């Protein structure tokens, strides 16, 4: 499947970052990675050509919550998927900062791909209804 969609992937766990990047690259996505929220925000300043952001929530320096808040403030239509290994509270906070979807770690990579496809499909049709799988 050829896919030219550009994804910014943010996670402070290098193994998670590389596993997701490799999987999505094999699916045809153009994935740029950032190991911290601050690095991701700098990447957005330099290259705001992303179709979607996938961010871990709990990270040092700028958290995923901060990233989502800043991105949604600057680019309200940018779809964001939050991923987290921490229970209920981060999920509720991610909803409050307007993440378009939230996946609890551990998740299957195919589940992430399906979530990405659903969100990008909704973005194309203009349906911005929030949905948490």
From TrEMBL:
Task: Read off the InterPro entries from this record.
Answer: Bact_response_regulator, CheY-like_superfamily, Sig_transdc_resp-reg_receiver
Biological process GO annotation list? phosphorelay signal transduction system
Which keywords accompany this UniProt record?
Phosphoprotein
Q: Does the keyword Phosphoprotein apply?
A: yes
* PROSITE patterns, per database record: RESPONSE_REGULATORY
Keyword Phosphoprotein belongs to the record: yes
Protein name, entry field: Response regulatory domain-containing protein
């Amino acid at each position: 499947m050829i896919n030219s969609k550009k994804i910014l992937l943010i996670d402070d766990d290098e193994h998670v970052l590389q596993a997701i990047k490799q999987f999505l690259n094999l699916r045809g996505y153009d994935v740029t990675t950032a190991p911290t929220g601050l690095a991701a925000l700098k990447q957005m300043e330099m290259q705001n050509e992303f179709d979607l952001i996938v961010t871990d929530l709990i990270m040092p320096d700028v958290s995923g919550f901060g990233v989502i808040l800043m991105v949604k403030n600057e680019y309200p239509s940018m779809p964001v998927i939050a991923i987290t290994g921490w229970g209920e509270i981060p999920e509720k906070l991610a909803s409050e900062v307007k993440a378009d979807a939230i996946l609890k770690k551990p998740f299957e990579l195919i589940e992430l791909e399906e979530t990405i496809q659903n969100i990008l499909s909704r973005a194309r049709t203009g349906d911005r209804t929030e949905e948490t799988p």
